[in-house]
Amino acid sequence: MGHRVSRQVNVIGAGIVGGMLMAVGAMSPVLAQDAPATPSVTCNVEEAVAAAAVVYTVGGEESTASYVAQEELASVGANEVVGTTNAIIGSIIFDEEGMPLECSNFAVDMRTLVTDEARRDNYLRSNTLQSDEFPFATFVVASVEGLNGPLAEGETTAVQLLGDLTLHGVTQPVTWEAEFTRDGESLTGTATTTFVIEDYDMEKPIIGPVVSIGDEIVLNVEITAASDAG
Questions:
Q1: Mean pLDDT of the region 169-175
Q2: Strand, coil or helix: 147
Q3: Residue ranges of the alpha helices (H) in the chain?
């Protein structure tokens, strides 16, 4: 039986440095008309974090966010592109019984994503992501599925994270396949989801030797978070 909540997301950042706090707080969702019926939440993230019994704060130095894209290059053929950043922060919150709560969240600074090609990165930032205008991507949890009780100490638990992903100024409901391990005051985890570029009003970066790019982009996060009790 899943742990599930249902309200509308209004992201107000918590545990987020300077610009991320302001950017996350200012966002209002623009849900696609044909979006799947994923539960959304209306919550003040800052208040939710302050009220939570236990808060695990995501540390950027030990956490990463990345994307994986498939492209076709002239005279080369298929090529996999991986862009990564450590500029990810957020809060994972739990109630008194150790159950995860809605409004857990993370934010990623899109201006810091890098691949193995600086020219590609500059084009993505300026044209596809338009990261000067939309510097942050955020995800806010609406529900956690596949969890029948609190996370067992030292055990890895597979769950689904349902919620709202805001990217390029557009908010869409997404589902992440995730695994988490709680070890005392430490929480580690990985999560993966996919999205279609056009769903977020972005144009594919077809330039130079790039002949084509796959429609679907894979997003990955690896987090290390520390409890505020530590």
A1: 95
A2: coil
A3: 18-26, 45-51, 118-123
